[in-house]
User: Which sequence fits this backbone?
């Protein structure tokens, strides 16, 4: 069902990873992504796998849940794999019809697919262990130094918060409307492409109307509680770095240093 | 037409940390011409239950036999089931989408593959049945109507399909007393007219007591009680512990009894109460 999409979803928990400061987690994710691009051989990838496995184990998010998030992007991974497999020139290993597989191609195909999978799992770990609200708080705080350059940090974060907040609501709404129209005999599965596109109208029209209604209600509710922009706003839960955040920071630096050393020395 | 529900169980978001057991081993049956009331506090699984009856949700286990065919089997054609079993959702006004009221009501019948003349006739009949002026309203946009009018148009959209089983999920929630009465009168008219099976989900004990042949009481996904209105409403303590209550006339007579006024039998409707009090006064 439409609600079972896990990408960008939060997995409730109280683990050490869940309780880290969101700013640290965002930086850690960026560092991890950078490190994946530092790696240039399988030893590098192996270190990255080890580090990620450790963090996943600590976070106690079931592996099956993380792998489910890979399903929607499976095609992209497959595409990358196949493209690399056949397109890299080098020592020929096998020929299939007009296509050739080279040793270098095979190596690159596995390497790129592994990198892509790690990239996706690594970044989904961030959203799985961080509540959307703290995620946007973290982004706002990290962006605030750029406010002097005219970056509207608070407004950006607010927009993200609202968007994230309403994804489940809109999914739920879509689900409800689809069922209501199915109950009136609507058929979304059969027919050619034009018929199918047409059959979406009974879903899209009520969905847009709902979205506008929800937006208007939200705007009114915010107004009624005297919301006004970012300036002079203080927070109920101020973010404060704790010992575990510094520990995470040190681990992160060690990891990045290890990855760089592996690339330069080996 | 008969519906037989055997031991169905439904779990939302199974396997996730926030999974919830919305239905737990529910069994009951409904026969031709029966009016079935479904009550239960908020979140007790009423909406989940009725969505199983026309195949919008599939149970995790158990079976649902509609005139002997198991609609949970993978090979049944859902369209045929939904043609026979009409479901009016909670807040159905949010499903309106056409430019005119007429076209919106025609959506269901058109999906049944009926011809133009038949569709027109059914649309007119359904709009009049829900108490709207056909000529006046047919060309108006459904989005310009009041909340109560929208609700009626949405209900007309399902009635126009002439289902053999009509399920209404809280059709009167949020309506004013007049619209509330109109919608119920309309349901009674449809029931008398088509002699179909009706399932009515409602929080209004008076309506349920007055209209139902059989009542299903839901609690935390389980079927806590089932039986005739007399059987169900004679269990006052159980109902109160489930967050429900007796119909107002029954409460009145209970109060009268406490004041020492004897009144015979179980009282469910205003007429029952009137009769009981009349008998008492006559004796004096
Ligand atoms: N789509 C869904 N996904 C997950 N859980 C759901 C979903 N729909 C309902 N639930 C849960 O299932 C339970 C039963 O919900 P249901 O909507 O059937 O209750 P209800 O009796 O109709 O309540 P109400 O009187 O408020 O309409 C609730 O605990 C609810 O939180
Ligand atoms: Mg409900």
Assistant:
């Amino acid at each position: 069902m439409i609600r079972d999409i896990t990408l960008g979803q939060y997995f409730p928990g109280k683990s050490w990873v869940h309780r880290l400061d969101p700013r640290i987690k965002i930086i850690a994710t960026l560092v991890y992504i950078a490190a994946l691009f530092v790696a240039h051989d399988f030893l590098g990838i192996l270190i990255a796998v080890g580090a990620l496995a450790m963090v996943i184990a600590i976070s106690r998010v079931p592996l099956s849940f993380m792998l489910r998030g890979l399903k929607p992007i499976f095609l992209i991974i497959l595409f990358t794999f196949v493209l690399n497999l056949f397109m890299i020139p080098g020592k020929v290993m096998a020929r299939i019809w007009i296509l050739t597989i080279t040793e270098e191609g095979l190596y690159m195909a596995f390497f790129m697919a592994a990198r892509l999978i790690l990239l996706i799992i690594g970044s989904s770990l961030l959203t799985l262990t961080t509540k959307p609200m703290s995620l946007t708080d973290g982004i706002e705080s990290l962006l605030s130094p750029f406010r002097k350059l005219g970056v509207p940090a608070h407004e950006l974060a607010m927009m993200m918060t609202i968007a994230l907040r309403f994804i489940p609501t809109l999914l739920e709404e879509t689900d409800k409307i689809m069922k209501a129209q199915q109950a009136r005999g609507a058929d979304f599965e059969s027919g050619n492409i034009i018929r199918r596109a047409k059959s979406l109208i009974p879903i899209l029209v009520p969905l847009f109307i709902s979205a506008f209604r929800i937006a208007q209600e939200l705007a009114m509710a915010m107004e009624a509680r005297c919301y006004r922009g970012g300036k002079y706003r203080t927070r109920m839960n101020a973010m404060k770095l704790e010992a575990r955040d510094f520990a995470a920071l040190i681990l992160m630096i060690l990891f990045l240093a290890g990855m760089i050393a592996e690339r330069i020395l080996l | 037409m008969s519906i037989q529900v055997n031991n169905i169980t439904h779990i939302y978001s199974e396997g996730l940390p926030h999974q919830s057991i919305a239905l737990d081993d529910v069994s009951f049956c409904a026969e031709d011409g029966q009016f079935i009331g479904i009550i239960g506090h908020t979140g007790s699984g009423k909406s989940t239950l009725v969505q199983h009856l026309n195949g919008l949700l599939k149970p995790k286990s158990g079976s649902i036999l509609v005139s002997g065919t198991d609609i949970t089997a993978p090979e049944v054609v859902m369209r045929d089931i939904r043609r026979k079993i009409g479901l009016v959702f909670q807040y159905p006004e949010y499903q309106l989408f056409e430019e005119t009221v007429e076209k919106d009501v025609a959506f269901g019948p058109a999906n049944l593959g009926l011809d133009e003349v038949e569709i027109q006739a059914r649309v007119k009949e359904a709009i009049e049945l829900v108490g709207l002026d056909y000529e006046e309203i047919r060309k108006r946009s459904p989005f310009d109507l009041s909340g109560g009018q929208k609700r009626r148009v949405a209900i007309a959209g399902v009635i126009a399909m002439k289902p053999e089983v009509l399920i209404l999920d809280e059709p009167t929630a949020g309506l004013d007393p007049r619209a509330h009465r109109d919608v119920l009168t309309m349901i009674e008219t449809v029931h008398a007219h088509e002699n179909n099976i009706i399932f009515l989900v409602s929080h209004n004990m008076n309506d349920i007591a007055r209209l139902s042949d059989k009542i299903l009481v839901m609690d935390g996904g389980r079927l806590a009680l089932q039986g005739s209105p007399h059987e169900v409403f004679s269990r006052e303590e159980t109902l109160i512990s489930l967050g429900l209550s007796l119909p107002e006339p029954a409460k009145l007579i209970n109060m009268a009894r406490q004041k020492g006024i004897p009144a015979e039998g179980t009282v469910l409707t205003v007429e029952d109460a009137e009769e009981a009090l009349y008998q008492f006064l006559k004796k004096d």
About this structure: The longest strand of chain A covers residues 92-96. The CA atoms of residues 207 and 254 of chain A lie 49 Å apart. The mean pLDDT of chain A is 85. Chain A has two domains: 1-130+240-266, 151-233.
